[in-house]
Write a structure and sequence with these properties.
Elements lengths: L1 E5 L2 E5 L3 E6 L7 H6 L2 E4 L3 E7 L7 E7 L5 H6 L11 E4 L4 H18 L18 E4 L3 E5 L3 E6 L5 H4 L4 E4 L3 E7 L7 E7 L14 E4 L4 H17 L19 H5 L7 H16 L5 H12 L3
């Protein structure tokens, strides 16, 4: 087992799971305290690196997750500050050796298990727990796992407040978007009901809470964690959702990735990818057989 303990948190790796536990001091960002412990399965890891510090600047461990593995990383999309990012850890200079050993252990496990670094078609992390509350500058969003409740404050524009509080059921949503406040530009927490598209500015959209950034740490934590909790409970964007036309049981995305006229090397690579998805349990026996047959028919 590998472990590194620092003031802002502790990372532990047992060969299968990397556990991230935030510190409890005031130096720990609000988001990391609110999120709590995170268990990252090895299969969700795309890579890990250690950056040495310079002078008084500490070094930094950075964990890179596979695209689509974690709803929080998907929502944040690289826009969290270093201090708020749960997949980074500041490392004191005298612990650089431990950090490098930690990196070597994780990388060795990735090679041993042959973990792919490509995107996932299902979430491998559960996402933030519920209920979640996101305070904004003109209202508050609350998510209980089944519905989002939007309530407006006295600062909300009439286009929002005139309609009163809104309730959005989870199955009514096609997605949720978080944008942080940057400089003088407002941030937002926007919910997208099915069949609609965002056409209004955040301050006028009745499905959107504005984030002015006055209470930046608190607003960032509440908004991004709530967005991630909702995202984790919506269908994964990469998941097969329908049957391929003319190929019963075969997910369309998998069949369409091996087009007519593809060279034999490309088709062989696709067959290997399908076998890997079948071994990992992503494809059922029926889906694997049907998709494999569809690919073979194109030789």
């Amino acid at each position: 087992m590998a472990e590194i303990i620092q003031r802002t948190g502790t990372w532990t790796f047992d060969g299968d799971t990397l556990r991230i536990v935030p510190g409890s001091g005031k130096a720990v960002h609000q988001l990391r305290r609110d999120l709590g412990e995170v268990a990252v399965p090895l299969g969700a890891v795309a890579g890990i690196a250690y950056e040495a510090g310079h002078g008084r600047k500490p070094g930094r461990l950075r964990l890179r997750l596979r695209a689509g593995a974690d709803p929080l990383a998907q929502v944040a999309n690289g826009r969290l500050a270093d201090a708020a990012d749960p997949y980074q850890l500041a490392v004191d200079a005298d612990r650089s050796g431990v950090a490098r050993y930690f990196v070597d252990e994780v990388r060795h496990a990735l090679l041993l298990e042959q973990v792919p670094d490509g995107p996932c078609d299902r979430y491998l992390l559960a996402g933030p727990s519920v209920p979640r509350t996101a305070p904004g500058s003109d209202g508050t969003a609350v998510f209980d796992g089944e519905r989002v409740q939007l309530e407006w404050s006295w600062t909300a524009e009439e286009s929002k407040s005139s309609g009163g509080a809104r309730t959005l059921m989870l199955d009514e949503l096609s997605g949720v978007e978080w944008a942080p406040a940057v400089g003088l530009k407002n941030g937002s927490l926007r919910f997208r009901p099915r069949g609609t598209h965002a056409s209004q500015k955040p301050e006028h959209d009745p499905h959107c809470v504005s984030l002015w950034g006055v209470r930046q740490a608190r607003e960032t934590s509440g908004a991004v964690l709530l967005a991630a909790a909702v995202t984790a409970r919506l269908p994964h964007a990469g998941a097969p959702t329908a049957l391929s036309e003319g190929v019963p049981g075969a997910p369309p995305a998998l069949v369409e990735s091996a087009p007519e006229g593809a060279d034999h090397d490309a088709l062989l690579r696709r067959l290997r990818e399908l076998s890997e998805l079948h071994r990992e349990g992503v494809l059922t026996d029926e889906e694997f057989a049907a998709t494999k047959r569809a690919v073979l028919d194109r030789f």
